[in-house]
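Listing S7. Sequence submitted for prediction.
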Amino acid sequence: MRIGIDIDNCISNFDDTLLKEYLKHDKELRNTGIINESPEYLRRGMFDWTEKEEKSFYNANIEEFVKKLKPLEDSSYYIKKLKEDGIL
């Protein structure tokens, strides 16, 4: 049996990483900051960007974002435990 582990917001805080990168890019793009603090999704509608600008930035940088992810507290312990128990 194989078990997949979802990394974004399961064993790492993808939203925090993404927000930090979006804030950096916003300073370069328009420097308007967050214009909508409670969008349906973090990416869409939070900044004063066109849909094309947002998609382009995300697609061009997603691999770098993932490389910056840090594990949530205790997540590595439980993954190791699953491996030791023969589940992974």
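Caption to Listing S7: primary sequence and predicted structure tokens for the chain studied. The chain is about 50% helix and 0% strand. The first helix runs from residue 14 to 29.
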